[in-house]
Design a protein that fits this description.
Structural class of chain A: mainly beta
Radius of gyration of chain B: 13 Å
Low-confidence stretches of chain A: none
Order of helices and strands of chain A: EEEEEEEEEEE
Largest sheet of chain B: 7 strands, mixed
Number of helices of chain B: 0
Distance between the termini of chain A: 41 Å
Oligomer: heterodimer
Order of helices and strands of chain B: EEEEEEEEEEE
Structural class of chain B: mainly beta
Number of strands of chain B: 11
Distance between the termini of chain B: 37 Å
Largest sheet of chain A: 6 strands, mixed
Mean pLDDT of chain A: 93
Strand content of chain B: over 45%
Chain lengths: 114, 116
Amino acid sequence: KQEVTQIPAALSVPEGENLVLNCSFTDSAIYNLQWFRQDPGKGLTSLLLIQSSQREQTSGRLNASLDKSSGRSTLYIAASQPGDSATYLCAASNSGGSNYKLTFGKGTLLTVNP
Amino acid sequence: GAVVSQHPSRVICKSGTSVKIECRSLDFQATTMFWYRQFPKQSLMLMATSNEGSKATYEQGVEKDKFLINHASLTLSTLTVTSAHPEDSSFYICSAPRAGVIGELFFGEGSRLTVL
């Protein structure tokens, strides 16, 4: 059974700092891995999707990496801004097709202070 | 991008009543939709997979008779919490992949259920 862990549970940084959020998964036979953003009381916004054959994906100030052999993914946020404050969730899928399901971590609550 | 809409966003009900939550894919068709439940500071837990035209598939430990799921069309799935109890109070989120596209899920805004 896939288990996803995110460290740290909470992170507070000053504006402008570069930061890394960590995600680990127990079953390395993943189909893909996604990073999401969740604002308080809201749904999820997909940030980056990394297929199992990929090593990283980039979107603007965000860069996500994937190392299947070690069961780890990182989300790098450059030049953080107060608007980046949210909970960041990592989720792994172990299969595609009709059995496509995501296993989520508990998230990292990020606070970027002005 | 693809949009998934949930309604209502918030609902408060009395214990023992039933509550229906709707999940709609607005600009694409979804033969499958997923229903998640999220407790405060916890991860999203998959409750069930809703399949258009057939019965839903429930995850282990989820009561089928309590959480009724109907996927009546390619754009609508509903979750009905029957005989709600205070412990059913939670944040319910649906998601859908675009039909024929594997690998990315689009999430609704979630529905906050409070059972008094």
